Amino acid sequence: MHVVHTVAECRHIRALLRGSVGFVPTMGYLHEGHMILVRHARAENDHVAVSIFVNPAQFGPNEDFAAYPRDLNRDLAMLEREGVGFVFNPSPDVVYPKGFETYIVPGAVAEPLEGERRPGHFRGVDTVVAKLFNAVQPARAYFGEKDAQQVRVIKRMVKDLDMPLDVVVVPTVREADGLAMSSRNVYLNQRERAAAVCLINGMRLAQQRWQQGERDADTLRNIVEQTIRAEPLAILDYVSIADSESLKELHGHIEGAALISMAVRIGKTRLIDNMTLE
Ligand code: AMP
Question: How far is C-alpha 184 from the geometric centre of its chain's CA atoms?
């Protein structure tokens, strides 16, 4: 497995590879959700590249950049076991050297939900993803539906900027009780971990009502909100029922598919999750 730290080394390794590269960008502290992306990439490409980079540009000043969990040796061992050939692990000053001043400005799909609560987040995401694509030059890049808005923002960027690759979206991997896997779950203590099932429980209740024919966006949103509010350790940030493509908030009768998404604080941990109703 080649582990490279600079853009020049990354390009050098890439130039040696014949055939297609499937690329999985991550912030490390890998779990089974990341591994599923790797397995998809391996099944569909001649080579797999993974990046591990905690991107400072996508964290706000009061967010958890410094505390974000990191364990490079463990991550590399996991990737080695999966047969990954190529890992790009730059430092912040490789990605953002002195004098760096060019950013990608995402459009309307980045504005609501996470974009509204985390100003500049998707500008940081788009910028780093574009830089990683330039360094790795993949045929396909793999992203998790776990970060539903991120997927839509990146697809938009790839289309708008004519980037020569396919974006492949992989369903969310969950723990046995339904909690979406996330590097941030390690922050949860035992009581908080138990409380965290309120996210999936709320969405499952709404899904049941949807399957019984409920199509009123406000009713469905209320069902999820009430489930979160019933959990004493949870502080609701938002619950959204939105158009599953544009992410515009829906009210009244829903035509077509909708995306339930939410952010909930449990202790110091901010969890996000989503589910498509179709
Ligand atoms: P992160 O390291 O959290 O930035 O995630 C890297 C990639 O893995 C992103 O495309 C995420 O959407 C994806 N991912 C994270 N958690 C999961 C999960 N539980 N299931 C599927 N994909 C995930």
Answer: 12
2-25 pLDDT per residue, tens:
999 999 999 999 999 999 999 999
What pLDDT is stored for residue 12 in this prediction? 97
Q: Which residue is it, tokens 């591990």?
A: 52
Q: Which residue has the tokens 């960008």?
A: 25
Q: Which of 27, 32, 34, 52 to mutate to test the pocket of ligand 1 (most atoms within 8 A of CB)?
A: 34
**Secondary structure (3-state) at 240:** strand
261 lines ligand 1 (CB under 6 A): no
Domains and CATH numbers, the chain: 2-170 (3.40.50.620), 183-277 (3.30.1300.10)
Per-residue pLDDT reduced to its tens digit, 225-247: 999 999 999 999 999 999 999 99
CA separation for the pair 256, 127 (Å, rounded)? 32
3-state secondary structure 116-148: HHCCCHHHHHHHHHHHHHHHHCCCEEEEEHHHH
CB atoms closer than 10 angstroms to residue 32: 11
**C-beta 183 within 6 A of ligand 1:** yes
Do residues 24 and 38 touch, judged by C-beta distance below 8 A? yes
Q: Measured between alpha carbons, how far is 189 from 193 in angstroms, rounded to an integer?
A: 6
b/e map of 236-269 (b: 16 or more CB within 10 Å)? bbbbbbbbbeebeebeeebeeebbbbbbbebbeb
Task: Write out pLDDT tens, residues 196-236.
Answer: 999 999 999 999 999 999 999 999 999 999 999 999 999 99
pTM for this predicted structure: 0.98
Specify whether 253 is catalytic. Answer: no
